[in-house]
Amino acid sequence: MSQDVRGVVARVRGAPVEVTTVVVPDPGPGEAVVRVQACGVCHTDLHYREGGITDEFPFLLGHEAAGIVEQVGAGVTDVEPGDFVILNWRAVCGTCRACRRGRPWYCFATHNAARKMTLADGTELSPALGIGAFVEKTLVHAGQCTRVDPAARPAAVGLLGCGVMAGIGAAVNTGGVSRGDSVAVIGCGGVGDGAIAGAALAGATTIIAVDTDPRKLEWARGFGATHTVNARETDPVEAIRELTGGFGADVVIEAVGRPETWKQAFYARDLAGTLVLVGVPTPEMKIPELPLLDVFGRGGALRSSWYGDCLPSRDFPMLTSLYLQGRLDLDAFVTEEIALDQVEEAFARMHRGDVLRSVVVF
Ligand SMILES: NC(=O)c1ccc[n+]([C@@H]2O[C@H](COP(=O)([O-])OP(=O)(O)OC[C@H]3O[C@@H](n4cnc5c(N)ncnc54)[C@H](O)[C@@H]3O)[C@@H](O)[C@H]2O)c1
Ligand SMILES: [Zn+2]
Ligand SMILES: [Zn+2]
Q: Residue with the nearest Cα to atom 18 of ligand 1?
């Protein structure tokens, strides 16, 4: 028996989102229906709405969520009704070439639900990142449900489902930040501040936050930035070099997703330093002109980070524990709790830089 619930749908490119009826089927084999308790508004949802990711409208938006498993399909053993879970977009397959080599965070065949959620007229929805969680209940693959300690606040730990995990992982997993490193983070939204928090957890001693918005820089300090640079007033490459003895940072994380900030990150590294691109570019963007000799001569690593190279089963429970112990302030990412019909306003506030995360709570 399918269920009719309310959800946030982007019907056509660039148009405001709308709250409408979503039909959620019973879970098929290996699938689960989750009652969503909280879902954060991520910049990637806006990318979807603008047609910057794919053309497969209509989209069911939302993907940084936590909730309670309500129903499971045949063969599901890892979760059961009543479990508190964070939804993930990396349900690893266990059998692709990456999984077989013991690097499942690169899994090339992650699972999503095979059954489709639809509009009331039967039109199939494309769930954002294979999740779709601005909706009272959602259908996912059971592997997309990661059980964590139910003592945690859903609005806070749900953010581990995308942006905050992407940021923490960009620093800790992809960037390999460790004790004593110098780190610079360009772009201090939810993702960039996740990277700052991750760098602090890993023991970086210098953490430089770069943004164009003074409010963002203030918030970045709260997550562990030791220095801040306003890129509107100061050249960030020069500032980062100055703050690192003239050399540049060991790891520079780009959390904006633009060619010019990527280039700043490239030159703000120390020799043999690491650049991590976690911001998502749009299809028309190109790497700005860069002498190949600089790529060679400066050495180091140029990496990109999908979902912070995380493994949900390993990282979500661990980060939830750190949160519950007071060592990772996930509450500070939640600027406001909003209702389902306020997502469009939340996009505008995100655009203006008024929020780190607006979180829809049900
Ligand atoms: N790789 C992944 O797995 C992953 C996951 C989630 C989000 N993302 C991407 O990460 C990026 C950031 O997401 P977010 O939710 O934090 O967005 P956000 O809009 O909250 O944050 C972006 C920040 O960049 C700052 N900024 C803009 N232009 C700048 C410039 N020239 N110099 C310095 N700072 C500048 C803004 O002021 C803002 O604080 C987006 O591209 C998003 O799609 C990637
Ligand atoms: Zn795999
Ligand atoms: Zn996201």
A: 189
Alpha carbon distance 156, 47 (integer Å): 23
For ligand 1, whether the C-beta of 200 sits within 6 Å is no
Which residues have a Cβ under 8 Å from the Cβ of 305 and sit 6 or more positions away? 166, 169, 170, 173, 174, 175, 276, 277, 278
Tell me if 163 CB under 6 Å of ligand 1: yes
Q: Can you give the pTM of this predicted structure?
A: 0.96
* Residues surrounding ion ligand 3 at CB below 5 Å: 42, 44, 162-163
pLDDT tens digits along 119-151: 999 999 999 999 999 999 999 999 999 999 999
pLDDT of 291 over the 90 cut:
yes
Which residue is closest in CA terms to ligand 1's atom 31?
261
User: Is residue 212 lining ligand 1, measured as CB closer than 6 Å?
Assistant: yes
What are the tens digits of pLDDT across the range 63-94?
999 999 999 999 999 999 999 999 999 999 99
